[in-house]
Amino acid sequence: MAKSLTQEFVKGLWNEVPPFRLVLGLCPTLAVTKSVENGIGMGIATTFVLVCSNVLISSLRKVIPSKVRIACYIVIIATFVTVVELVMQAFAYPLFLKLGIFIPLIVVNCIVLGRAEAFASKFGVFRSFLDGLGMGVGFTLSLMALAAVRELFGTGFLTFWVTPIRIFGPSYQPFSFLVEAPGAFMALGLMLCLMNLVGKK
Amino acid sequence: MGDLFLLAISCILINNILLAQYLGNCPFMGTSKKMETAVGMAMAVIFVLVMAGVLTWLTDTYFLKKFDLEYLRTVAFILVIAALVQFVEMFLKKSIPALYAGLGIFLPLITTNCAVMGVCLININEEYNFLQALVASFGYAAGFGLALILFAGVRERILLARVPRPLQDTSIALVTAGILSLAFFAFKGMV
């Protein structure tokens, strides 16, 4: 409890940044980072679910009986995921099609359930809100970083929103290995290595 | 019959759930440090995934589609899976304790294994019929087991190697998974 409110938020950005430090939520990290646009979309969707479920779970933490808590968490999370799904279908349909089954799969994203169990079930509403927001922003940034590397070197383009922007000239031979599945694993592994080098450890 | 066989092959090798569809990677990294846990996890997934695939298909066809409740699919599926896992756990504990001793600790983890939920959703999105859904669920589950056990074997070897410090643990595991994925990549174009 010694942590200040700012620290609650900031820890999600570096010290405990989800896909790298906690090694949670790998599947969306690997799958949707083919373009920066997908990464941003997935990041925002996950952040929304994370923040909402954290707030609701922490406000209900005294009501939920501890024996069935996991089931309750899952239902709460699934509800917010459905909200995200419907909203995206209405307002961002092309992105919804690109992300495909990974939107409903936010339900089983271990980050969301992990934060609910490890944080929201123990701390107050505002703290949980900050924790969720920090983790969500950290997750979004890491998705964007990985996506930027993969898309830039894999295709020579960067897509921030809808239209791809050419970064490397037409003579650039795309290293398309990076956009495929094996490249995803390796890029993430090497980024993790880089983070270990830079970070304290 | 031939179609079903091709579907099974494509699910096990070409569209391998772990290495080509990127689903279920958290347990892939988490339980592959030792061969024992990898085998346990693989068996538990095969066991649950086949049942979950069939049950969610039935739920979707005979309940959600019938009453126009498709927008509840996410909630319904996760509930079916959670209930199934709980039920399997109780059933095994009561009647087959030997199997429970082996799979027990992995079962609760399966609820949040995105491979299970993912396969259920793929079955629906691809509009498989009942038999196809059954075969696909089994194929994906077998593919999961195959990749996980192979990977565990490789990782046990890595333990003996001298890995540069920043690359240790998850980092080298991910790079290894990339190489394994590259091997599975070669199956593309087989069917």
Q: How do the strands and helices of this protein lay out in sequence?
A:
The complex is a heterodimer of chains A (201) and B (191).
Chain A lengths: L4 H6 L7 H5 L3 H6 L4 H24 L9 H23 L1 H7 L10 H11 L4 H31 L1 E5 L1 E4 L14 H18 L3
Antiparallel strand pairs in A: 1-2
Helix pairs in contact in A: 4-5, 4-7, 4-8, 5-6, 5-7, 7-8
Chain B lengths: L1 H13 L10 H6 L4 H30 L8 H23 L1 H7 L3 H4 L3 H12 L4 H31 L9 H16 L6
Helix pairs in contact in B: 1-8, 3-4, 3-7, 3-8, 4-5, 7-8, 8-9
From the structure above, extract its key features:
heterodimer, A: mainly alpha, two-stranded antiparallel sheet, 2 strands, about 65% helix, about 5% strand, B: about 190 residues, mainly alpha, about 75% helix
Structural write-up:
The complex is a heterodimer of chains A (201) and B (191). Chain A has a two-stranded antiparallel sheet with strand order 1-2. In chain A, a hairpin with a 1-residue loop joins strand 1 and strand 2 (163-166). Chain A has one domain (5-145). Chain A contains 9 helices and 2 strands, in the order ααααααααββα. Chain A is mainly alpha-helical. Chain B has one domain. In chain B, helix 7 packs antiparallel against helix 8 (130-160) and helix 8 (130-160) packs across helix 9. The mean pLDDT of chain B is 86. The interface between A and B is large, with 42 and 48 residues.
Mean pLDDT of chain A: 85
Main sheet specs of chain A: 2 strands, antiparallel
Category by helix and strand content of chain B: mainly alpha
Number of strands of chain B: 0
Largest interface: A-B, 42 and 48 residues
List the uncertain runs of chain B: none
Strand content of chain A: under 5%
The value of Rg of chain B in angstroms is 17 Å
Strands of the widest sheet of chain A, in order across it, are: 1-2
Mean pLDDT of chain B: 86
Helix count, DSSP H or I runs of 4 or more residues of chain A: 9
